[in-house]
Amino acid sequence: MKKGMLLMVLCLTLSAxxxxxxxxxxxxxxxxxxxxxxxWSAPExxxxxxxxxxxxxxxxxxxPVFTGMMTHDPHDDYExxxxxxxxxxxxxxxxxxxxxxxxxxxxxxxxxxxxxxxxFTFEWMCHPDxxxxxxxxxxxxxxxxxxxxxEADEVSGIKIIDDQTIEFHLSRVDAPSLIRISxxxxxxxxxxxxxxIADLENxxxxxxxxxxxxxxxxxxxxxxxxxxxxxDDFHRGxxxxxxxxxxxxxxxxxxxxxxxxxxDLAWVQPSAHEYERYQNAGLEVxxxxxxxxxxxxxxxxxxxxxxxxxxxxLTYALDRWEMVEALFDGMGIVQTSHMSSVSWAxxxxxxxxxxxxxxxxxxxxxxxxxxxxDGYRYKDGERLEFTLNYPSGNVPRxxxxxxxxxxxxxxxVYLNLEMMEFASLIxxxxxxxxxxxxxxxxxxxxxxxxxxxxxxTDHWNSVGFDHPDNDKLILAxxxxxxxxxxAEIYRGWQxxxxxxxxxxxxxxxxxxxxxxxxxxxxxxxAFSMWWNVEQWELDQ
Length: 540
Prior knowledge:
Elements: E1 10-12, E2 34-39, H1 55-62, E3 70-73, E4 79-82, E5 85-90, E6 96-101, H2 115-126, H3 144-148, E7 158-162, E8 165-169, H4 175-183, H5 189-192, H6 204-207, E9 215-221, E10 225-230, E11 243-248, H7 251-260, E12 265-268, H8 272-280, E13 284-289, E14 292-298, H9 308-317, H10 320-328, E15 332-334, H11 357-366, E16 370-371, E17 377-379, E18 382-383, E19 385-391, H12 395-410, E20 414-420, H13 422-431, E21 437-443, H14 468-478, H15 483-500, E22 503-515, E23 519-520, E24 537-538
Parallel strand pairs: 2-11, 2-12, 19-20, 19-21
Antiparallel strand pairs: 1-13, 3-4, 5-6, 6-8, 7-8, 9-10, 10-11, 12-22, 13-22, 14-21, 14-22, 15-22, 16-17, 17-18, 23-24
């Protein structure tokens, strides 16, 4: 599989006596065979691949708990390699994928993984009563429309041959389907059957999941931590670390806990100053360009923000280069468009709109917003004023809200700041779409197709972007298997985003993890920090 990328991995390995972890308050059973990992925001508790919507849920109770038929190998140019399946085949016309499951793979409750579980997992997301947001991933499975509309009792394109063999038939060539179907994490049918699809998000197994991955989730305290225990019967061998506690700690608390040994591993913000402190404490840092970015979403239905010139003015007014320097000591890049810098679809030649406050002021004046003596702009007696919503817990993002407020104020825009819990902001943005501007980030997948976020009908298209070329370009990119041809289509689509400015694309900082020296074989990568978790070991 052609990817055309080189991940730059910086490993600062320093000799020092190991720092042993202390248990977070309320956690029981943490011992010398365990580690504590800190993340900066609480998960929502949607610990199922079909339902979760945040990286915090993925880190806390999805990625280490579930697994798919295939996985990707970062050491082999991200080729698909066997996981629950022993092998796969692709038809000559690229429209039929066949998977052969291993006969020695089990869920955490001891039940074998069969093709019935695979079929159930995908039909759950295609069902008319499905409450998640990933149905669009499977729109080109044969029979999807009939099943989604309730006209059929099953998705005809998912064909069980026997307990270990299953076929997926597509109605047309759809390049993203290969990676998505192959790597989608499988849920146990026997746990969920009998519960209406519409009620599955409230099933007890959502917060106490049962998967077939290397770790079992044994404890979850809302807003505080999850406890993961090694699965003895994991088909690739029992993981080397007995227990992993993933707890919630803000960025500033993470630093203190790493330095005192209260945490063994933390997802941290890149900072040269803090790296020096980690170095002096004998900690190890792994960092690389992130397959993720931060952005400011813009409500395109807003009576003022619907004007493209106003959106361009907001972009010109923000010195995003200074943000990267001030927030991350320069350890990041200005984000140009949706594709991440590690993706094969990234257009490295695309220029972001520059920092140009004079142009910002001219655009606002041309739109009728005149500067008054108080330093703000008015039109028809109304002040140019917006509210910026943003989630708590991510200290650089919190700081950046104030930077944005100041920079927009410099061109006469009055900005109110409203910080919220992440779990409260999600429905406000994606369900109610009740906002002017908001700050958030996307963690992206190995497959570059932006369906699910950017199609006009997508739930996650919270800003309401519905340009006539948008869906056409996205769907055209799905019709072609060749990566170079697809990348050319996506270059045109990325240019469209720059021109239309549905977001202010802010920055992509480096992905950074810090851990104590006694944790061995941690090899986080831009597409999954958990990809080799069963190989982690503790050097006591």
